[in-house]
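Workshop exercise sheet. Pairs work together: one partner reads the sequence aloud, the other fills in the structure field after running the prediction. Swap roles for the next sheet.
Pair: D.N. / O.F.
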Amino acid sequence: MTRRTLAPLALAFALALAGPALASEASEAYKQAKELEKAVSRARDDAAEAEAKVKLEDFCKSAAERLAAGKLSKMDMLYLGYVQSYGGMHDAAVATMRQAVADPAETKFGANVHAGLVDALVAKGDLATALEEVRAMRAQYQDHKLVKTQAMKVGLGLRGARDYAKSAEALELSLAMNDLGAAKTLVNDYLLLGQQDKAVATAERAVEMATGPDKAEMETVLAITRKVGQPMPLDFAAFVPAGAPPELAGKVVVLGFWNVSARTLEWTMGVLKSIHSGFGASGVETLAVTTYYKKDAETGQMDEAMPPEKEHEVANLFRSQYGYTGAVAFARDEAALKEMGLSGLPYFMVVGKDGKLLFAHVVNPASGSGDVELLRDTIEKATQ
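Structure field:
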């Protein structure tokens, strides 16, 4: 994992609470390093990015050497560890954070210090050890919200590394602290491990925990989880372009769900385009399934009088805009979407040659999440 994905929320939280009274040379160095890291992220081209990286690394190396030569408090060691992580000095960062955790000095930010060690291990890419430290945090700080945050972070990192068993362990910690955000990914981890019973049980737990819209969403997840490995009828009102729908029998069918208002529309179309071009010759049919019907793309208003031809026109507009040449489908109605497990966007499904459901998941579009690679792996296995 690169330093550009390092997200020291625990330290930011501590700084916000501590205020100017605890300002030190180490905390100021951390703030400067963070600003320089932002400059790397904002770079407009490769040359600018390379220049920004050199500035960041030079500053962090110089600041780390200066700080390490002095007497540091427990909190200052935390700041130093983050400076080292920003500068790519991951081994040094982990060592510094361990020293901070071991320091017997009392501080109300003890959980933040331990969370810093987890962040340093994640930045280094040592996710297995990071999981061990999350367990240690749980034992020491019980239900502190940073335990939940770090468990989720480590769980997602392990999932990106395709270690679904350890990812499930981390996400179980998060869910145990009532973090519903972990539920859907944990369900999918168990499905990937071939443990459908555990996946169903996890979804059932989440339904019991949830209220309001969250409960309805988890009920949808539970229903689709129970259908994995079962026949999945694909019932659509129409296809674009107009005419006979593509023949789906005996093919692997990949469905990517979209609507004209979703921020992930372009990304979803890009994934479908890649799958269509990469797997089309292997008997894979892609369907860009719209989740909005009779909606004017210009005004955003529903128009119940909109004829199918107009809906097709709007869908073709978006299909052409993003260069996707596969089929576009309209779900029969909202009930059909629920039956297919749609609980959020971007959402993808894979149905095997035998018509059985293989994959149904809200896909994380973030780089490094591993979800798109997992989707492609599922398709490749289904074509064999």
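Discussion prompt: The radius of gyration is 24 Å. What would you look at next?
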